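Quick one - first record:
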Amino acid sequence: MSFPSREDLDRDQRNTCAVQRSTGGDCSSDPNLRRYDWQAAVGFVAPYNYQQGAQLYAQLGGRVDFLFGQINAASGLIPDQSVSQLRQDARVEYVASQAPYPDPNCN
C-alpha cells in the first residue's frame, strides 16, 4: 500500500482552498483535520505514568483511543508533526506505528 506524498497532499489542500475561495468560502482551516494523523502507540518511562502520557498525547494534538496500564503506554491518532516532539521527550520510551508517517530525522 502506498501513501500520497506530503507534496501531493499539500497540492490537494491548495486546490481545495482555491475552490473554496472562488465560491466565496473561507479556507482558514483544513477541511480534513485528520489528513496527516497516524495510529501510534507511545510507551512512557516510569515514574511518568500512562495517564500523564495520555495528557501529553492530547496536548500535542493527538486523540487517545487506548490506555495500556500494564505496559505504561497509550495509543491513538497523533499528528505527524508531533512525532518528533514525542521522540525527543525524556519521559517517552518509544513511539511505534505501522504507518509510514513522515519522519523529519530521515532524509
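second record:
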Amino acid sequence: MQTQASAKALFGSEGLLHQIFTFIYTIAHQIGLAAGKGFAYIFNLRFPDNLVDPVGFLTVITLFLILVCLTRKVAIWVVVIGWALMAIRLLMVIFKR
C-alpha cells in the first residue's frame, strides 16, 4: 500500500515529477513567446505559433548545457587549487614550517 501511495505522489497527475515538468514547460513556453515577440518586432513578421515551444525548449536545453559546462570548469579549478594547497601544506610539513 505504501509503495502505491509513494508512486502516486511521485508520478501521479499532481505528483512531484508532474510539477517539475510543468514548471519546465512553463519556463520554456514563456521564453519561446518572448523570442517570438522579439522576432516579430525585429523582422516585422508574424512568428509561427507552432514554433514557440520548440524555440523555448531549445533555449532551455542550451542554457542547461552552458550551466553544466561552466559548473564542470569550476569544479576542475576547485580540484586543481585543492591539490596545489595540499602540496604546499605537505612541503610545509616536510620542511617543518
